[in-house]
Amino acid sequence: MVQQHDPRYDDSEYQYAGFWVRLVAQLVDSLIFVLLTLPLMYYQWQQIANMPIEEIPVYSPMDIVINLVFAVAVIIFWVKKGATPGKMLFGLQIRDAKTGAFISVPRALLRYFIGYTVSALVLGLGFIWAGFDAKKQGWHDKIAGTVVVKRIR
């Protein structure tokens, strides 16, 4: 399915969002995530507190659930709102690089699961790349065909 250009998106009203504002927005999202999952993490810590170190699992079912819920929430925010709460706080939006529309579910899945993995592989260089790229795209943006923009008008 080919997406049409989003009529609400006027290129002249936006500029590419740079590395630092994106980093701070991500830190806000991380803080929100930690605060929301703290009760679950506390419960998990109580479960393993008295275990011998060799019996403590690397990943528990709770870890998997927490990370999966976070991934689903991020993808829903990207598709429905064009941004996570941290990005919304700074007026940033994730858009399709060609059409300017909010991204589709397949594009969001590609950006999150493949793009973020590739961006993180080499000491996070794929994320830092956004600070040097003309369109301020990290590797995950390039892989998914997305840009992060900020309204200037």
UniProtKB/TrEMBL annotation:
Keyword Translocase carried by entry: no
Record keywords, A-Z: Cell membrane, Membrane, Transmembrane, Transmembrane helix
A Pfam family it matches: RDD
Localisation: Cell membrane
Domain RDD: 16-145
Tree of life domain: Bacteria
Record membrane topology: Multi-pass membrane protein
One GO term describing the cellular component: plasma membrane
Regions that span the bilayer: 20-43, 64-80, 113-132
PANTHER family (UniProt xref): MEMBRANE PROTEIN, PROLINE-RICH ANTIGEN HOMOLOG-RELATED
Protein name: Uncharacterized membrane protein YckC, RDD family
Protein's organism: Moraxella cuniculi DSM 21768
Taxonomy of the source species: Bacteria, Pseudomonadati, Pseudomonadota, Gammaproteobacteria, Moraxellales
